[in-house]
Write a structure and sequence with these properties.
Radius of gyration: 35 Å
Keywords: mRNA processing, mRNA splicing, Repeat, Ribonucleoprotein, RNA-binding, Transit peptide
Structural class: alpha+beta
Distance between the termini: 130 Å
InterPro entries: CAF1P_plant, RNA-binding_CRM, YhbY-like_sf
Strand order of the largest sheet: 3-4-6-5
CATH superfamily of one domain: YhbY-like
GO biological process, one term: mRNA processing
Largest sheet: 4 strands, mixed
Protein name: CRM domain-containing protein
GO molecular function: RNA binding
Number of helices: 10
CATH topology of one domain: Translation Initiation Factor IF3
CATH architecture of one domain: 2-Layer Sandwich
Number of strands: 10
Length: 353
């Protein structure tokens, strides 16, 4: 019985222990103790390290501040800066702009040229003879057949590290800087062309050689090998200011007219219906290689009056670019773009009669 009572007293004492003053102090101390999330050894985020600044320490110069010291960029390249050189025609004037021309894609105050909405023209007059002489001096003596074979064998593989993919934008301005960056450590760069620019590979080759100063030493369908030259100096490479964003394409006149030139409204409608009901000449894929399209369309228009190209899997903007290039290269008259189909009329010309 005494043992039972002693057990009850000890239980009551433990129950009343929370009212003890020392227990209150301990409880306050526990409430004021840091939580596990506030522990310096288990912080919720990465700790911020504070660096002590000495009085004699020189101020640190970041990359951005170095770039800002050289603003605005002054480039001696002897051509007008455009977003795309191979996919734009300087002779065609736009009828409107989707953004004010004052918004330069090079950034405000970063270039010493004025942006017109389509290009940044070179302000200084350039002598073509001096430009060609300087280019020839950089290229040096022509490569021998053995040297060309060695470079082709080195860069012909598809997993080559010195490769640049040329897409539907064609030869863009920022691509020039990529090519010169590859030329720092390599004699040549491999360029793989896909999409709309492959319709006119001669135009792509011309702008690559004209804008970079290099020389194409090998071409295999849509694969190009661009050589930098024997006397190329990476330290004296030209200054290529980068575009910070892609500018909006301006507004150009309509490619397809309601009534084709030389036809009446009924004849134009009949030509469109005939083209939609005819079998397709070719089926184009997205970002494909269109090297033989111009030749096949030209041969087909010698026999047929209307030709249809199936571009179901090609983007609408690319379809219009394809029709524009075919109009200039074949030549022909695009009369309809509908549901991924391009209808082409050969026109009333003596060469097809």
């Amino acid at each position: 019985m005494l043992k039972l009572l002693s057990w009850r007293r000890s239980a009551l004492q433990t129950l009343n222990f929370s009212n003890h003053p020392s227990r209150i102090c301990n409880s306050r101390f526990i409430k004021q103790s840091p939580s596990p999330s506030d522990d310096i050894y288990d912080p919720p985020f990465s700790p911020i390290t504070k660096t002590l600044k000495s009085k004699n320490a020189s101020p640190q110069i970041t990359l951005d501040s170095k770039k800002d010291q050289n603003l605005p960029f002054k480039s001696d390249l002897p051509f007008d800066f455009r977003y795309s050189y191979s996919e734009s025609n300087p002779s065609v004037e736009p009828i409107g702009f989707r953004e004010p021309p004052r918004f330069s894609p090079f950034g405000p105050g970063r270039l010493d040229r004025r942006w017109t909405g389509t290009s940044a023209p070179a302000e200084q007059l350039v002598d073509p003879e001096s430009v060609s002489e300087e280019r020839d001096s950089v290229l040096g003596d022509p490569l021998t057949e053995e040297e060309i074979e060695e470079l082709v064998e080195r860069y012909r593989h598809s997993d080559c590290a010195r490769q640049i993919n040329l897409g539907k934008g064609g030869v863009t301005h920022n691509m020039l800087d990529d090519i010169h960056n590859h030329w720092k450590r390599a004699e040549a760069v491999r360029i793989k062309c896909l999409g709309v620019p492959t319709l006119d590979m001669d135009n792509v080759c011309f702008h690559l050689e004209d804008k970079t100063g290099g020389k194409i030493i090998c071409q295999n369908i849509n694969i190009l090998l661009l050589y930098r030259g024997r006397n190329y100096d990476p330290k004296n490479r030209p200054t290529v200011p980068l575009m910070l964003w892609k500018p909006y394409a301006p507004i150009y006149p309509k490619l397809v007219k309601n009534v084709a030139d030389g036809l009446t409204f009924e004849e134009t409608k009949e030509m469109r219906n005939r083209g939609l009901n005819s079998p397709p000449l070719m089926k184009l894929t997205k970002n494909g290689v269109y090297v033989n399209v111009v030749g096949r369309v030209r041969e087909a228009l010698k026999i047929e009056e209307v030709v249809r190209l199936d571009c179901t899997h090609v983007e609408t903007s690319d379809c219009k670019k394809i029709g524009l290039k075919l109009r200039d290269l074949v030549p022909c008259v695009p009369i309809l773009f509908k549901n991924g189909q391009i209808i082409i009329w050969r026109g009333k010309k003596e060469e097809y009669s």
